[in-house]
Specification:
- There is one protein chain.
- Helix 2 packs across helix 4 and helix 7 packs antiparallel against helix 18.
- The chain contains 20 helices and no strands.
- With 425 residues, it is an all-alpha fold.
- The chain has one domain.
Length: 425
């Protein structure tokens, strides 16, 4: 016994130091997720360098100090990857399809790294605090760049008119990042000072508005509504939550009756402001384009067959069929079935079920004291997932790095942060 005690005392600080280093690498990668430009081959981005280094740091931590590792989402994403592989080999462009699968596996590795290192409340706290503060910084940078007219820094291009994308490759991707970050700040309560937190919400909402993303505004509205209903359900019960949903719905209906969407669109188009013209003003045309793209992508189902046409093949298929609106699917639900076939649809359903189960459990479960201090309002994570669910109708969010960071945080709380999970382990 006397010989074992010194060994235990030596290993404890080494283990803690290794975890802190891995958590620091992951936090840095989270902070730099917006560095998406310039885009490289295969949609690679400068941020991927830091994501890859964080994954390597996690592997070194896990290898040097053997850990109990978990693999959330691996089974469902494995089905999607398998379906994509079969579809890619059978499709017209196997190379592009297999490259998309490499991207899927990279994002899974990134999520698993975050989920496993964030097993302690200290590591989880570092990651989410850095996320909250860095998102505030990025939002402030966007507002500053737009205000000062630095169009290059703001990410304003002729392609998107007056819409800002910051360092993202797409204004809608930037909008999704700010929506998810808004909900992360809500869930974690960082910054702790309420006036600062309210200012952070306002800054992120301003950055979202500058992206001109109608889908982002809809997603944030729905996310806030879901998180609010979940909070009411936790405090007052399900009946009160349902009543609050009907109340909010009634207010929205009344608002639309007083100010119809067509009237708002007309006002935006006549405002002369490029941002309003290219966001609210184009909402009718944008909706029509999305509907047309959905119809054209759905028409590919017969040609794709049970196996699918291959990942990222929708644009190529639409071009070959001489469709009037040629783009990628911009819809995770349609893309999964058209590009990865029946098995891809099964994989997507399994992934959705896994996400919903984990998030709802986290939102309504009793958390350990340490994790509850880091994520005091876990119901906001349910709002974040609701926002992503509606966003998936407008663009393919499963390719976004910040989405997998969010899924990883949810998985970490589910695996390591619940009282029943701790007692079971």
């Amino acid at each position: 016994m006397a010989l074992r005690r010194p060994t235990a005392r030596v290993q404890t600080p080494v283990r803690a130091t290794g975890e802190r280093l891995a958590a620091g690498a992951l936090a840095l990668a989270v902070a730099l997720i917006p560095l998406q430009r310039p885009a490289g081959p295969g949609n690679a981005a400068p941020a991927d360098i830091f994501l890859a280094l964080a994954v390597v740091a996690t592997l070194l931590w896990a290898g040097y100090l053997p850990q109990k590792l978990r693999a959330p989402y691996a089974a469902s994403l494995g089905i999607l990857v398998t379906a994509g592989g079969l579809a890619a080999l059978a499709g017209a462009d196997p190379g592009a399809g297999l490259l998309a699968l490499v991207q899927d596996l990279f994002l899974l590795a990134w999520a698993l790294a975050v989920a496993n290192v964030a097993k302690s409340s200290a590591s989880l706290g570092v990651i989410v605090r850095v996320w909250a503060w860095s998102a505030i910084g990025w939002a402030g940078l966007m507002v500053f760049a737009v205000e000062r007219g630095y169009t290059g820094l703001a990410g304003i291009t002729d392609q998107y008119g007056g819409r800002a994308a910051l360092t993202f490759t797409d204004a809608n991707m930037a909008a999704s990042y700010f929506v998810v970050s808004f909900m992360v700040i809500w869930a974690t309560g960082y910054p702790r000072a309420r006036p600062l937190r309210i200012a952070a919400y306002a800054l992120l909402a301003a950055a979202l508005a500058l992206t001109g993303s109608n889908g982002g505004i809809i997603a944030l509205t729905l996310g806030v509504a879901i998180a609010t209903a979940a909070a009411v359900a936790k405090r007052l019960g399900a009946v009160a939550a349902v009543a609050s949903v009907f109340l909010v719905g009634g207010v929205l209906v009344a608002s639309f009756s007083l100010a119809p969407p067509t009237q708002i669109q007309r006002w935006a188009n006549q405002s002369g402001q490029p941002l309003l013209v290219d966001s609210i003003g184009r909402s009718g045309a944008s909706l029509q384009q999305r509907r047309l793209l959905l119809q054209e992508a759905t028409s590919l189902l017969g040609d794709a067959g049970l196996v699918g046409s291959g990942p990222r093949s929708t644009k190529t298929q639409l071009a070959s069929s001489q469709a009037s609106f040629v783009k990628q699917a911009h819809n995770d639900y349609i893309a999964a079935v058209v590009e990865r076939g029946l098995l891809g649809g099964v994989g997507l359903l399994a992934l959705i079920a896994s996400i919903v189960l984990r998030t709802s459990t986290v939102a309504f479960s009793r958390l350990t004291a340490g994790v509850a201090a880091v994520v005091p309002r876990a119901h906001a994570l349910l709002g974040a997932i609701g926002a992503l669910a509606v966003s998936a109708f407008f663009y393919e969010v499963l390719h976004f790095r910040h989405v997998w960071a969010l899924l990883a945080v949810i998985a970490a709380v589910h695996l390591w942060g619940r009282d029943e999970a701790r007692s079971a382990s």
